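User: Hey, my collaborator sent me this sequence without any context and asked if I could get a structure. I don't really work with proteins. Can you help?
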Amino acid sequence: MAVLSKEYGYVILTGAASFVLVTHLAVKVAKARKKYNVEYPAMYSTDPEHGRIFNCIQRAHQNTLEVYPAFLFFLATGGVYHPRIATGLGLTWILGRILYAHGYYTGDPKNRRRGAIGSVALIGLVGTGVYSACQHLGWIYQD
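Assistant: No problem. I've predicted the 3D structure and written it out in structure-token form, which is a compact way to encode the shape of the chain:
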């Protein structure tokens, strides 16, 4: 049976920081809705003049939400046996999402590639989570 270490608190704080990130991205979309006059429930703008920039701001938030459940799951599970590694990868994912969003905010979707480090971090979290599961099942010897 796994007992959560004191260091698991860092994993929890990383999850809380990720919520601040998601909230920040949501606020950016809300402000863009007002600025570019995109009324709810429309997800995207069809305005030929400003639609592209709004859509890029909205997609930065939407794409983050699309991967957020997997991020939280693997952060939490990977952190059970490897809290320091999971925390480092989680903070790297957050930084990557910030870079991703700011690249997207330029209006050129190619600039979102600036945040590719976040995808690498997420893959690392998947690996850490799977490794933790194998440890928990006794498939991997641990001291």
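In plain terms: The radius of gyration is 18 Å. You can pass these tokens on to your collaborator as they are.
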